[in-house]
């Protein structure tokens, strides 16, 4: 087991080979242009001159956590164990939970339970002074970027679930511009610093290509 | 995270009552606050509040982010003009650059800082309540003085008051009005919840009434008007206070009134309002409704009531309204 409970080889991401490839991505793609006038996000993600990369990763990790947390929180009434008995990103992708500490073997849980585990786990990392130091002068751990990569990989899964299972509700709540802005910012940031493997991004591939053409 | 005074810390998305997924029935208890455009089921006022808060937070976050980006660029430009000065030696340049980068690192780290009780110097106790105390405190970083409400979690759980406290925190974070006491930030530890609010040194209306005994007409008009504006500002955000009394009307240093203590406040759901029609009022006044040109209602729709019956009817409706 790796330090901070980051099991790297966990089979928590399960693409289903037999699943039909629908046009969900194309549908979502039509909506991605609705964003807030939030300035130049490409510029906003770049490491400022002279800044320590770990400080920059840390402050943005907290910001992205807060955004995902708030956006998913608005769906609490609709994302229930009944409506979402498993954590999926469309018919083709399913996620299982393991943190490598309390739950070593990946388990299948409902989407709200998965997100609860995930958010609690991330919050535990953010509150751990040895991982995300707040006191001035305290250094970041040597494997800090690996911790950040795991956090971003898991936050992406919440976005994938929201877009695939609850996007219509987001539209009816008139939240799509806010969701899209946060997601665009998130993807631009992960691309800038290479935080998520390409295969992990597959559930929202078409959407991502409309943000960053490969 | 954004600066300490920002909306983020008023809302504290990273605190533990993060809005864990509730059951659909629990979420719908408040009734329908808004209807989905596509005619789907109505959303609860809890969800409507969360959506409004999330949107506000995200919009503010991006505004703040763009502003801090510009401020950083400006600081960099000033640094470069300082370094371009031919009188500055190479060693001095290195020191200036190092100093600049350390300061920027501090700014960056302070953005992640989570407020806690250690950030405040605790001063005198200015009040005690069922769940804890209210203390005067001074923020160490700025020397600003606040009132810190400290609430014991176990006591709140025992008395089933968690939702009331959450409603109080949400309302204070959401409503930005000159007539409502301001919430600076909220946080928690293992044992207590903390609400850090603006300190109002003018005391409360109860003390003023006891001291003055009688207010002049002008004073009464002034305070009643400000009370109405305060109540209106929370009604606009779909909350009802349910505990309006002189003790909860506080005065700032200039004598203006602010409403406080939202421990009993409740999100308002207009769909569950009892039907308090003008017609009921007319019956209470013993006016024949059929004489009213605007309201030609059949007698079967509204039976005639005596004043005593009307009073009981009104009291019942009033109870329904605050339940």
Kindly report the oligomeric state of this protein. Answer: heterodimer
What are the segments of chain B in which pLDDT stays under 50 over at least 5 consecutive residues? Answer: 1-40, 275-302
What is the share of helical residues of chain A? 40-55%
Average residue pLDDT of chain A: 83
- The secondary structure category of chain B is alpha+beta
Give the ordered list of helices and strands of chain A: EHHHEEHHHHH
How many angstroms separate the termini of chain B? 39 Å
- CATH class value of chain A: Mainly Alpha
Keywords (chain B): ATP-binding, Kinase, Nucleotide-binding, Serine/threonine-protein kinase, Transferase
Biased composition (Low complexity) (chain B): 32-47
Domain Protein kinase (chain B): 120-323
Catalytic activity (chain B): L-seryl-[protein] + ATP = O-phospho-L-seryl-[protein] + ADP + H(+); L-threonyl-[protein] + ATP = O-phospho-L-threonyl-[protein] + ADP + H(+)
Describe the secondary structure blueprint for this structure.
The complex is a heterodimer of chains A (about 210) and B (about 325).
Chain A: E1 13-15, H1 24-31, H2 41-45, H3 53-73, E2 87-88, E3 93-95, H4 111-126, H5 144-165, H6 167-172, H7 176-193, H8 205-211
Antiparallel strand pairs in A: 1-3, 2-3
Helix pairs in contact in A: 1-8, 3-5, 3-7, 4-5
Chain B: H1 7-11, H2 24-28, E1 32-34, E2 43-44, H3 45-83, H4 90-110, E3 120-128, E4 132-139, E5 145-152, H5 153-158, H6 162-174, E6 183-188, E7 192-198, H7 205-212, H8 217-236, E8 239-240, E9 249-251, E10 257-259, E11 266-267, H9 278-284, H10 307-322
Antiparallel strand pairs in B: 1-2, 3-4, 4-5, 5-7, 6-7, 8-11, 9-10
